[in-house]
Design goal:
The chain is α+β, with helices and mostly antiparallel strands and 322 residues long. The chain has helices at 6-20, 26-37, 41-64, 84-94, 237-240, 255-263, 291-302, and strands spanning 107-112, 119-122, 128-131, 136-141, 146-152, 154-158, 167-171, 174-178, 182-188, 191-198, 200-205, 208-216, 219-224, 229-234, 247-254, 269-272, 281-287, 306-307, 313-316.
Amino acid sequence: MTRESPAQIERDAARWAIRLGEDPDAQTLAELEEWLAGDRRRRGALLQMQGVSRLAETILSEKSGFDEATPARVPERTSHAITRRRALGIAAAAGLAVSGIWVLEERTRSYATIRGEVRSIPLADGSMAVMNTQSRINVTLAATSRTVRLDTGEAWFKVAHDRSKPFVVEAGPVRVRAVGTAFSVRRLDEGSRIEVSEGRVEIWSELQPKERITLSAGQGAFLADSGRIADAGTVDVDRRLAWREQRIDLEGETLAQAVAEFNRYNERQLVIVDPAVAGERFHGVFRAEDPESFAIAVHDSLRVPVSLSEPAEIRIGVPPHG
């Protein structure tokens, strides 16, 4: 069965947010439980849409002051009265894309993805965050600043232009500042990897705040927590960001590196049992949620045994004899 895309899950979650805002009956709740059981990513998407709906309720009540029981005026050509509750459901379905209705107060919102999940998050200032697998961010929008703390994982940001409110991503001591641009940050063990797809960003470490560099579109760098900058230069950003479409794009990575990347997305883990093949290099584009196809490609390329018999892992190679 074809795996649902994150966009499809979000659309379905928005529809459920509308239905749950209209006094659901027992049949609707039973259908909801069945839908939630079909994919573990669905519950998080629904909670996100319900959070958007609750925030919309606060904003709409402040902005318009209309009572929930009072229908809004609508053109006579339609017979459906748009109540406040239904308006909130529509706002959830739209993801509140019309940023003009937001009231920017200092509030922090947290988002997380589970293994294998890639999720798009519309932010209240009109920016967009796309979160990779097993990632967690905290977003604080204030009157004079916009701050995202990346606790784990990786995210790509499309930043709405606003010079009066700098957009800063914090990943440990690493800082990435932008105004109106698009870039990704991946939190690693001893630093962060930054890649820029549009515009420019300034990067530095709070441990060495005077040591700063600027990266432009098509460039990337690894910034250690200590402030050391490595691997700065031109990169194939589109290839590096293939994960946004749940793809893994290999261009000379070792088998060990490729296996580590696939294992970020899948419960069924790839295991290299023959260290001799770990350094072999691979090229190709694969679906992140399909480690089986990658394992078969490894078998065809290296002519090494691949075992698909275990439900929890896929074993590559033959163990060396002791």
